[in-house]
Design brief:
CATH class of the largest domain: Alpha Beta
Helix content: 40-55%
Structural class: alpha/beta
CATH topology of the largest domain: D-Maltodextrin-Binding Protein, domain 2
CATH superfamily of the largest domain: Periplasmic binding protein-like II
CATH architecture of the largest domain: 3-Layer(aba) Sandwich
Largest sheet: 6 strands, mixed
Number of domains: 2
Distance between the termini: 60 Å
Length: 252
């Protein structure tokens, strides 16, 4: 009798003990902030698990992961930085995939800027005048690397280089234009959509730079079922709708 009571009490206690929520730690390119915040909020509401997201330039995030930063998922804005993480043996086999695509645009401060035609020899230096061209770091951050490559291919980099104001990530570059500190900037089309204080005045030819690809992967530090569940959720129909709604192209 005592044994049955003890077992019943133990079972009741176990059933009354809540399941501990799991935490998903995501390192993501700064340009993903809008849609990823929405998807994380939905996942948290549905599962009770926590999604913690660190946004920065893909270069900085990759280096942090390689140096041992605790992350479960990496979402990069360029293939080369995911390559570095994979070379370090930190990507779970079979989980890497190219998720999204994007477009590179020239933005101007305000809503009344005139459109321009971007092509070989485009007089961007003349358009800038004494103003600055806001870009993410051109030798490290994907948006800056794509932008520099495009300007070089168009034959105008050497003329505008002295006017470039570099920021640590593409959202910081967007902010300089949004606040009027720089009259023009080069960002992703999805960044421009997220800010009412800028206007897209031109689109850079797709063949003037490498394709803009966002690879994602589970990292070897991922230990919880929630990590895999959130990563899989990023490829769901609902996630596709969220990403396309903010200007991304679905690649998978």
């Amino acid at each position: 009798m005592f044994l049955r009571v003890a077992l019943a009490s133990s079972l009741a206690l176990a059933m009354a003990t809540p399941v501990l929520a799991e935490e998903v730690v995501v390192f993501a390119a700064a340009s993903l902030k809008g849609p990823l915040d929405s998807l994380a909020a939905e996942f948290q509401a549905e599962t009770g698990n926590t999604v913690t997201i660190s946004y920065a330039g893909s270069n900085a995030l990759a280096k942090q992961i390689i140096e041992g930063a605790p992350a479960d998922i990496f979402l990069s804005a360029a293939v080369n930085w995911m390559d570095e993480v994979e070379k370090a043996g930190l990507v779970v086999d079979g989980t890497r995939s190219d998720l999204l695509g994007n477009t590179l645009v020239l933005i101007a401060h305000g809503k009344d800027a005139a459109p321009v035609e971007i092509g070989p020899g485009f007089d961007l230096a003349g358009l800038l005048g004494d103003g600055k061209l806001s870009m993410a770091m051109v030798d490290a951050v994907p948006a800056g690397q794509y932008g520099k490559a495009s300007l070089e291919n168009l034959g105008i980099w050497s003329r505008v280089e002295p006017s470039v104001a570099q920021s640590e990530n593409v959202r910081a570059a967007l902010t300089l234009v949004s606040t009027g500190e720089a009259p023009y900037g080069i960002v992703y089309a999805t960044d421009a959509v997220a800010d009412d204080n800028v206007t897209v005045v031109g689109t850079f030819p797709a063949d003037s730079h490498k394709p803009i690809v966002y690879p994602g992967a589970l990292l070897t530090g991922a230990a919880d079922a929630a990590d895999k569940a959130f990563f899989e959720a990023l490829s769901s129909d609902a996630a596709d709708a969220t990403f396309t709604g903010q200007g991304f192209e679905i690649l998978k």
